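tool=predict chain=A
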Amino acid sequence: MTALELKETNLIFIEHNKFRIENDLLNKQCVNYQNIINNQQQTDSIKTIQLNSYKNKVNSLTLDNNNLNKKINHSNKILTIWKVGGFTIFATLLTLLLLK
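tool=predict ok
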């Protein structure tokens, strides 16, 4: 083996060692990226659960609000009827008193 062949062989081994180390680092990086993806998926699923919970709460509160609005409208109609009826009775009684 000549000095040139020995030098080329040593360079090949050094390059192989460099690629092996680089490959290990890239594998570790891939594992880290996969862990990041898993954490993001877990966070997304938690946020989805929270979002669905908030949607259900909003729907429930909307229904409650609509029911209360219906009760208020019904009470306002009854109050209006009583007001008109009371004014009519008052006006009738006042007219009767004034005519006597």
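The mean pLDDT is 94. The CA atoms of residues 32 and 48 lie 24 Å apart.
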